[in-house]
User: What shape does this take?
Amino acid sequence: MELGIIGLGKMGANMAERLHKGGHRVLGYDRDARAVGAIVEQGSEGAESIVELISKLKTPRIVWIMVPAGKPVDDTIDLLIPQMKKGDILIDGGNSYYKDSIRRAERLSGLGISMLDAGVSGGIWGLKEGYSIMVGGDQKTVEFAEPIFETLAPGRDKGWGYVGPSGSGHFVKMVHNGIEYGLMEAYAEGFELLRKKSEFKLDLHEIAEIWRYGSVVRSWLLDLTADALKNDQELKGIAPYVADSGEGRWTALEAIELGVSLPVITQSLYERFSSQDTEAFGGRLLAMMRHEFGGHAMKEGK
Assistant: This one.
């Protein structure tokens, strides 16, 4: 099978390489010509424009886009529509908001173009380990594109699947990332408590290694944590700033709309917000109030 990939960041390029090694014909385009050159060196084909990429694909064309969520996706679709024909397939493998995916699928359906929303997890390790893929859209279209998903996944029959109608793939990926926030926060809190118990002189790397085998808290996240702690238990040079990609926010908002209690996921999102607050004005305000009503000492700040 052949397909075109638009957006050759690290993940898009890795996906192109895995597909090429799996026997698929892959054409890639990116605004950065160096990114295109990199996949050509891997054995895939490059294109200098979206028009050229589409023209080189056989019908029905399959185009997989890996661009940032929001306006970049709409802009890319606007560029693709004049080049695509009835029966072609567009797959959005980025982290789009599921309601946007529903809207886009409806628009493209009116033009005879099928759109699949594929939530993809695996990050930079996907090339080696395979990707977890949650696909939403028309089921027959998913079945047609099945060889692509089977190649990207850890195995033909594992790590990927059809989850429901348009929007459901990105919805499931949104919840997946919300769970990820909670798991990461739990590990971070646990290891911080271990580190604070200074009189025990605990070896955090050793503890992580113990937990990796047989423990109910073993996971790939723990494997990665153990590897990092092996090199530097103090994690020097890493600022305590944790970004959020947006999916945690969408998960929290969806929970509010549906009236579902998500205390762990929501609190983990708030912890990320706290890490991003370099001014900590609320903390300063608290210190001021405590001083004003009780005369408690305040530390000087910048």
Summary: Residues 108 and 114 are 6 Å apart (CA to CA).
